[in-house]
Amino acid sequence: MRSSRRCPLLVSVLLCAFALLAARPAEESRHSPEDGRGDVGVGTEVAQLYEDTAVATQQYEEGRREARVQRARARRLEGLLDRERREIAVLREDLGRLARAQYRTGGDLPLTARMILADDPEKLMEREHAVRKADLVVDNAIDKSRRAETRLAADEARAAAAWQDLEKRNAELAKLKKSIEQKLEEARWRLQGQANASARAGACRGAVRLDQPKDSFTRDWVAPLKTYVLSAGFGTGGARWANRHTGQDFAVPIGTPVRAVGAGRVMRVSCGGAFGIEIVIEHPGGYYTQYAHLASVAVDQGDRVLPGQWIGQSGTTGNSTGPHLHFEVRVAPELGAGVDPVRWLAARGVEL
User: Fold this and answer.
1) From the CB of residue 247, how many other CB atoms can be counted at a distance below 10 Å?
2) Residue that wins the pLDDT comparison between 90 and 229
3) Which of 2-16, 128-142, 192-206 has the lowest mean pLDDT?
4) What kind and span of H or E run contains 285?
5) pLDDT tens digits along 12-45
6) Collapsing DSSP states into helix, strand and coil, what is residue 119?
């Protein structure tokens, strides 16, 4: 268990960090749509706010875990303290019984007088010795228990104070976390508004060069998103599609970073039409992957990409009923040459 004395310092540092995150101005969002960089600025802001939200959530959860540890420690010490106090009460009762026994065998009479009056002075001496020895043992036990009681009371008070301090600071962290999440939600819809304008115009404004994820990938193939909920699957029917569904949908919020599932070359970046803003990547072996209904793109046509590289941000452009990523795997770049993306990725070691 980590020392409780580290907790307030740790949370104080985290609190300062969150304050900086919440207060940081979004420089990128200051570009006007007319200067051709509006999408880029908002897209970068959304990506940064995603990272800030992830950090805020992680540190908030760490603070909650630390508070639970301190609360459990305080309660455990409180239980030990109660047990120690009960034991002291028992010892005091034992001491009272010894005192009453002494009184019954002579009370306050001097030992010499009791020996003279006793029928068997030798047995009286043995009994007197036993009583005094027991008295000393109980007295020492009480003294030891009192010291333990004092120590436990101090430890319990410190643990309770640390727990209460963490609870207070966690409430402040929760406010900062909510503030960042609100900023993210506002930026998402600004990004989507600009994406809708680009899709209507049928022209993308250019790549949003996002900072790439810090975690490196050693695998050749990855899922197109880090976190997601699977929604409409390949081959399913419905009123939204003229035929069967041609890909796999991933339900994610607007602005979620989208990853290239494997190494390849960006064959097409387009805006407009049923797929809205989309990217098509050509992979070795004659396969193509499509990423559709995006809010922004982070690559240009002809770019080489690596597995796990951020290539865009999810959205709800084109024929879309809500924020999600439409992902397809094809044996040709054109629509209608699709294969089941879930099985295709599974065959390459990626379980969705």
Assistant:
1) 25
2) 229
3) 2-16
4) none
5) 444 444 444 444 443 333 333 333 444 458 888 8
6) coil
Give the model confidence (pLDDT) of 287-328 as tens digits.
999 999 999 999 999 999 999 999 999 999 998 989 999 999
105 has pLDDT over 60: no
Alpha-carbon distance of 352 to 350, in angstroms, equals 6
Phi and psi, residue 31, nearest 5°: -70, 140
Strands (E), the chain: 229-230, 248-251, 257-259, 264-270, 277-283, 287-297, 304-305, 310-314, 325-330, 338-339
Cross-strand partners of 270: 278
- Please give the full DSSP string across 332-343, using - where no structure is assigned: SSSTT-EE-HHH
What token pair was written down for 351? 């379980």
Specify burial of residue 238 (Cβ count, 10 A radius: 0-12, 13-18, 19+): exposed
Task: Answer yes or no: are the C-beta atoms of 21 and 56 closer than 8 Å.
Answer: yes
User: How does DSSP classify residue 286?
Assistant: T
Nearest Cα neighbor of 291 from 349, 224, 238 is: 224
Check if the beta carbon of residue 142 is closer than 8 Å to that of residue 95: yes
Q: What is the pTM of this model?
A: 0.62
Report d(CA 96, CA 90) in Å as an integer: 10
| Phi-psi group of 309: left, alpha or beta (phi > 0 → left; psi -120 to 50 → alpha; rest → beta) | beta
3-state DSSP assignment of residue 351: coil
Residue 137 pLDDT level (bands cut at 50, 70, 90): low
Residue 47's CB is within 10 A of a number of other CB atoms, namely 23
Among 248, 225, 222, 223, CA closest to 235: 248
